[in-house]
Amino acid sequence: MRSDGTSLYTTRDLAAAIDRMDKYNFDKMIYVTDKGQKKHFQQVFQMLQIMGYDWAERCQHVPFGVVQGMKTRRGDVTFLEDVLNEIRLRMLQNMASVKTTKELENPQETAERVGLAALIIQDFRGLLLSDYQFSWDRVFQSRGDTGVFLQYTHARLHSLEETFGCGYLNDFNTACLQEPQSVSILQHLLRFDEVLYRSSQDLQPRHIVSYLLTLSHLAAVAHKTLHIKSSPPEVAGARLHLFKAVRCVLANGMKLLGITPVCKM
């Protein structure tokens, strides 16, 4: 304790770790903080072991880098509330300027979800430990490897199901999926569990991000060539099931990253 009766940062973390073990009997405890805390957590874990807590080996620190160049309208010091407000505002402006934007029941909510996806994907694309230069313009690009592109792909595939779902989502024949675009997507879908396992092992979300972006690019190419409307019913049904599988995996992957998929934008 300090002379004024307050506790030290280190003693609070020691007490908190012991309390969490008592409460939750955890298999693993992961601390996610900036890389400046690395030495602090090394010391905390060593102290716990010296105190006789063998479970300290199950504590892990996952450090992240510094975001450089993030400024909002209020100045250089950036608060999360300001960032979220800025995201919503900029995304609403972007949506209003794009002719293909659909009429939405709640444009504010959609703008926030798409904007957060943009922010999260930019943050998770590289190694967590790496510093990176923030760019508002790059964040909101609708093409390329961005969160906006992921949301757009999900909304587009959802629209396909809404348009053709009633007629084609019953029985289907997978033998109809012979085109190279279909095979590429199927092969990529099969890798989803492998990618999740890899991310769970090194605690790096970038593997999931990379996988989802590749899946979205494959779906964009297939959407142009694998037509549903003008195809025989058996072929159309198989293709629609393929696109539905892409959308489901895309949605699950986005949710794992803390992104809520949108159905219209």
TrEMBL record:
The keyword Aminoacyl-tRNA synthetase applies. One of its GO terms (biological process) is mitochondrial translation. Its EC number is 6.1.1.19. GO terms for molecular function: arginine-tRNA ligase activity; ATP binding. Residues 150-265 form the DALR anticodon binding domain. GO terms for cellular component: mitochondrion. It is an enzyme of class 6 (ligase). It catalyses: tRNA(Arg) + L-arginine + ATP = L-arginyl-tRNA(Arg) + AMP + diphosphate. InterPro entries: Arg-tRNA-ligase (IPR001278), ArgRS_core (IPR035684), DALR_anticod-bd (IPR008909), Rossmann-like_a/b/a_fold (IPR014729), tRNAsynth_Ia_anticodon-bd (IPR009080). Keywords: Aminoacyl-tRNA synthetase, ATP-binding, Ligase, Nucleotide-binding, Protein biosynthesis. PANTHER family: ARGININE--TRNA LIGASE, MITOCHONDRIAL-RELATED, ARGINYL-TRNA SYNTHETASE. Belongs to the class-I aminoacyl-tRNA synthetase family. Catalyzes the attachment of arginine to tRNA(Arg) in a two-step reaction: arginine is first activated by ATP to form Arg-AMP and then transferred to the acceptor end of tRNA(Arg). This is Probable arginine--tRNA ligase, mitochondrial. It comes from Camelus dromedarius. The lineage of its organism: Eukaryota, Metazoa, Chordata, Craniata, Vertebrata.
